[in-house]
Amino acid sequence: MKLNTVVFKLVEDPSAQVAAVQAGDVDFFPLFSSPESLEQFKSNPDLVVMEGASEAEVLLGINNRRKPLDNVLVRRALAKAIDRKAVVDGAEFGYGKPIGSHFSTNHPAYIDTTEVNAYDPEAAKALLAEAGYPEGFEVTIKVPPQGPFVRSAEIVAAYFEQVGVKLNIEKLQWPQWLEQVFRNHSFDLSIVDHDAPMDFDVHANKDYFYGYDSQNYRDALTAVKAATTPDAETQSLQAIQKLFAEEVPVIPLYQTRNISVARKGLNGLWKNMPVFMANMTDVHWEN
Q: Cα separation of 253 and 191, whole Å?
């Protein structure tokens, strides 16, 4: 029998999420944001921990309008300065997959482009020198409040330091982030996730907050939209992923996993999250 009533509770703080699950205040918690607490739930016979596919790609956003970030050599250097696996381990406790372009790993046309800008601090230093910054430079990253974003920024800062780039971290609340970063483009770097499927097309809009202005990318997106056969579409999608990795409009970090915790016996829940929503239409209790 399907549910007659569903009550939604908004619990943002990770420690409060853990407490809510432990106390039985919630029966289902999608998008659980305290992965470090999952082991204790896995050993609880009354709970089920689900790890599924997500469409959310976490990106180190770059304001392409600002120097020296408008230089592709600098952007590639910054990308090569980061060990993405270390970011996944430190920010998401291993629940994620490193990516090399803004494209879902769930899509059949996905190709792994992580090697294009694989972790290589010596290569990063060489690119910075070639770009005219042998001693590095200083930039600020503005980070929204979610734990994985803040942890990612701290890890990235440590890696940047190894190649001579000082990264100042400024933590914002969401209204501040929306005003300063998204609307007014008053930032150097930021970290945010993109949840909408197939939203790599935002990079063809030079007025988007990343400020990436590339005719090459716009032409590649036109080819995607003009494809008339599945094979042609796959080829064009793979070409745009390769171009993205080469031009680095932003630095892709990882694709998240959809982590959910549920009370045992609650069926019909989404393990995977193909769109950013909690679909309760088929949820029912086993008994």
A: 9
